[in-house]
Amino acid sequence: MALKSAADGAVTxxxxxxxxxxxxxxxxxILAALCYILALKKISVSIAFPSVSASYALVAVLAHLLWNxxxxxxxxxxxxxxxxxxxxxxxIEQGIFRLSNWQKTL
Length: 106
Hints:
The protein is mainly alpha-helical. It has six helices and no strands. The protein folds into two domains: about 1-40, no CATH class; about 45-105. Helix content is about 80%, strand content about 0%.
């Protein structure tokens, strides 16, 4: 989000690179990467990677609220699909939804 704010006011690429918001954006990005690396020490990639998709939905909503980025039917549908996919993934991981339960009914 800081990178978007810095890009909006920059006249040249050099001005954008030395903008404090750009530097803050890079620092936040590096911290997020380090947090993800630490998370991978505790949980498997099969759990950590799908949960990253939640950030895409969050960024779309925040961009709409902060910079009036479009949030039309396509974006809302994408956010809903991400949310449903995460709910399905969580229910499978917690054993709520199992293939064996469906096989018994067939």
